[in-house]
Amino acid sequence: MKRPHTLREYQVILPWSNTKRLQFKMAYRLLIVVGAVLGHAACGGSATTIPTTASVVSSPTTWRGLIIAEENRCAPYNSNDYNYSQSVEDDIIVQLGDIYSPYTGECFASKSETDIEHMLARSEAHDSGLCAADAATRSQFSNDLDNLTLASPSLNRYQKVAKDAADWLPINNQCWFAATIIEVRRKYSLTIDRREADALDQVLATCATVVLNRSTCSGE
Q1: 3-class secondary-structure state, position 67
Q2: Largest Cα–Cα distance of the chain, in whole Å?
Q3: pTM of the model as a whole
Q4: Residue 55: which H helix or E strand, with range?
Q5: Assign residue 209 a region: left if phi > 0, alpha if psi is -120 to 50, beta otherwise?
Q6: Local structure of residue 47 (DSSP, 8 states)
Q7: Alpha-carbon distances, residue 201 vs 49, 52, 63, 74, 174 (angstroms)
Q8: In the predicted model, what is the mean pLDDT of the chain?
Q9: Helix (H, G, I), strand (E, B) or coil at 76
Q10: Which residues is 151 bridged to in the sheet?
Q11: Residues 121, 122, 126, 129: is their CA dihedral positive or negative?
Q12: Beta bridge partners of 148
């Protein structure tokens, strides 16, 4: 049986341009590799997988429409980058229907007894993606009524502080709180870490509704 031509013999036989010759070299070498793989398998060796881009790059893990990822402070956090107007407290009271904290059900005589509370803390949002956002997006987040409520100063400053749902949950309205955290993260395309996702799953598994249970503060 006549032996096959070598690569050098093909180069002599076929008077191609340099581009064609390079393309032929690449195809020839690929055939050699494939032949070696098939020969190895035919001789009883284990099949060898040729990696592709699709097999190397894996898709991110998602949960309820959010990407699961560890917190990442891609830029230094400065609370001045997340300023909000104190006048937004009036809008929060209108939204709640009275002056009280959904976290405890506690009613207050006036708004001077309360703190404006970011349910998803500003620093937490920063480490979940807003560190890469522009100033307008950070300001929008800081003043977003979807993420604002009222709390007593002691609870806001010394208990919840900037903790996420893996480390702190309110006594009341846990289902509403959990649903709000998820919706706010979705709204700003923020990530969530696995610990918090698991904690929120445990809360939501017990929920018949995620509607806010409002307090009645008559006489206050």
Answers
A1: strand
A2: 106
A3: 0.74
A4: helix 53-56
A5: beta
A6: P
A7: 38, 35, 10, 27, 11
A8: 85
A9: coil
A10: 115
A11: positive
A12: 118
